[in-house]
From TrEMBL:
Name of the protein described by the UniProt record: diguanylate cyclase
Assigned GO CC terms: plasma membrane
Top-level lineage group: Bacteria
Chemical reaction(s) catalysed: 2 GTP = 3',3'-c-di-GMP + 2 diphosphate
GO molecular function, one term: diguanylate cyclase activity
């Protein structure tokens, strides 16, 4: 990622360059005037241009029009002052945002905004509105901030889109729509998507003062009254997504092991405690790294941690997309194979065991060969604790038989 700062103040450009390079780990170029900026823009592809509104050779914001219209690059405006008319003109041009050069926080805001724009490229937003004009207006605003935008002309179509594309992170929905209105849409969406997975912003041009409260009580994260100004829209969207990121981060901290990033024992039991009631085919593989204590005793805990991290990565790569991979503690891991019986689970785990035994782990002291033992059991008419207890018995047999093997009921 490459950023261009167009700023005639040496002090401002140096502060910005330092903050951007430090926080975002990207390349930053500086142009003190329009002529230098054009030279750089002609030879480089920039993710964002941060441009001063008043330059020595372009005192009337010419750089902004050039960046947006000729180079089709996202632009953040820096300015010492801005009147109401200038603000309206800049927003009409389609800038990402403007920042007044007031203090250090202003420059930190620029860095935060660039970081958000980078993440936005991977964020899908669904806009549900029966008004084509309103829908297109919202789409344009979202695309200024580099979101991937999908449209739905009513709540029913929105539900279909969400079913087909469950990775959508933000739903922006109007209230008055045919077939399925905004309230019903939110209620039905919340049956499938939690606040950790999907954020919702409601829109309406209705004058009912209770609408905002009703939207939020029904499961929306925020509400905007139409007509709204560009800045309020962007601020609400960005704050909503920042909150979503924070919720997800807290969830990850609570449910992921701090070292290996595998799920925790607590998460495993919470997720699978009702498998017997659900009457699912369900197997577990209880895994223990062979002679792991010897690794710690010989090479130290830092190397032991490297082995644990790499082993967890291998488990996640092999099974994490479809099954639950958790660390039970120390060198012990478990994989929950929902939908598979012991025979199929045994086959998968034995193949994985052979792959691990044939591939060394690179550590700070050199390559280390690692094997593991595994016990596999399938749920019967019992609790999750009972099936794990049986898997543990098979794991004990695997160790007693010489380790580096999988033992199961099959």
């Amino acid at each position: 990622m490459r950023i261009l700062i167009v700023e005639d103040s040496d002090a401002v450009s140096k502060v910005l360059k330092h903050l951007i390079a430090q926080e975002l780990d990207c390349d930053v170029d500086i142009a003190p005037d329009l002529a230098t900026a054009i030279t750089l823009l002609d030879v480089n592809q920039y993710f964002v241009v941060v441009a001063d509104l008043n330059l020595p050779d372009a005192p009337n914001g010419e750089i902004v029009r050039l960046v947006l219209n000729s180079y089709h690059t996202t632009c953040i405006v820096l300015t010492g002052n801005l009147d109401s008319q200038q603000r309206k003109e800049l927003l009409k041009l389609g800038i990402a945002d403007y920042v007044l050069k007031e203090n250090r926080y202003s420059y930190q805001y620029v860095v935060k905004l660039i970081s958000r724009l980078k993440r936005n490229q991977q964020v899908k937003v669904l806009v549900a509105d029966d008004s084509v004009v309103s829908r297109k207006f919202v789409r344009v605003l979202l695309e200024q901030h580099l979101f991937k935008v999908i449209e739905a002309n009513d709540g029913a179509q929105a539900l279909t889109v969400l079913k087909d594309q469950p990775d959508i992170q933000l739903l922006i929905t109007d209230y008055n729509m045919p077939n399925v209105d905004g309230f019903e849409l939110i209620l039905r969406v919340r049956e499938q998507f939690s606040r950790e997975n999907l954020a919702i912003i409601g829109l309406s041009n209705d004058n009912d003062e209770s609408l905002s409260a009703r939207f939020i009580k029904n499961g929306a994260n925020d509400f905007l009254q139409k007509p709204f100004v560009h800045e309020e829209f962007h601020c609400r969207v960005l704050n909503t997504l920042d909150s979503l990121d924070m919720i997800r981060s807290l969830w990850e901290t609570a449910n992921r092991d701090y070292l290996t990033q595998a799920f925790t024992r607590r998460y495993f039991f919470k997720k699978h405690q009702n498998e017997q009631q659900d009457n699912n085919v369900f197997s577990v593989a209880l895994i223990d790294i062979d002679f792991f204590k010897k690794v710690n005793d010989t090479h130290g805990h830092d190397v032991g941690d490297q082995v644990l991290i790499e082993f967890a990565k291998r488990l996640e790569m092999a099974f994490g997309q479809h099954f639950t991979v958790a660390r039970f503690g120390g060198e012990e891991f478990v994989v929950a194979f929902k939908g598979l019986d012991a025979e199929k689970t045994h086959t998968l785990m034995d193949k994985f065991r052979q792959q691990c035994a044939n591939k060394v782990i690179d550590t700070s002291i050199g390559p280390i060969t690692m094997t593991f033992s595994c016990g596999v059991a399938t749920l019967r008419s019992e609790t999750i604790d009972s099936v794990l207890h049986r898997a543990d018995e098979y794991l004990y047999l695997a160790k007693g038989a010489g380790r580096n093997r999988v033992v199961s009921t099959c």
